[in-house]
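Lab meeting, item 3. Inverse folding demo.
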């Protein structure tokens, strides 16, 4: 099946198998490997991307379901070679350990800040509750999202 999607601002027109997940489409067909493949069950959040501005587990969505949509992956957050404020905050707070979960955490944090620019700690925890970190760096990850929420305040 042929799909037309805009990924990180670039229009893509590609043939995909009907059973190809959005995650596999991004990683294998477009070589955007920032979104991680882990549980493939919608439980860990490592594959989180934005589709038309909404957070989705891309392992649970078929590529054909993203037809005519706008997809943003972790690779699409930096602009003109500069990290966005949330990415900067992850670095500043030392929120990255092995890094495997971080693209998904950042995308979930980005989605939260879009909807709620100044969340409380409880709201950050709730917003990131679908994203698991096997290194256990939750304190710094939440601090990073709170720090990003203060930028430009
Ligand atoms: S790989 Fe998609 S939720 Fe775990
Ligand atoms: S930083 Fe290692 S899994 Fe989260």
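The presenter then showed the designed sequence:
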């Amino acid at each position: 099946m042929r799909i037309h999607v805009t990924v990180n601002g670039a229009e893509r027109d590609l043939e995909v198998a009907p059973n190809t997940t959005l995650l596999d489409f991004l990683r294998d067909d477009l070589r955007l490997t920032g979104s991680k493949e882990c549980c493939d069950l919608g439980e860990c959040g490592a594959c989180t991307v934005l589709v038309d501005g909404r957070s989705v587990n891309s392992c649970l969505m078929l590529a054909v379901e993203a037809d005519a949509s706008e997809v943003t992956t972790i690779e699409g957050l930096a602009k003109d070679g500069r990290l966005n404020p949330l990415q900067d905050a992850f670095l500043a707070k030392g929120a990255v350990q092995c890094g495997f979960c971080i693209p998904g955490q950042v995308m979930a944090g980005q989605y939260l800040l879009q909807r709620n620019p100044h969340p409380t700690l409880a709201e950050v925890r709730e917003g990131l509750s679908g994203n698991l970190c096997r290194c256990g760096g939750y304190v710094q990850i939440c601090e990073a999202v709170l720090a990003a929420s203060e930028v430009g305040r």
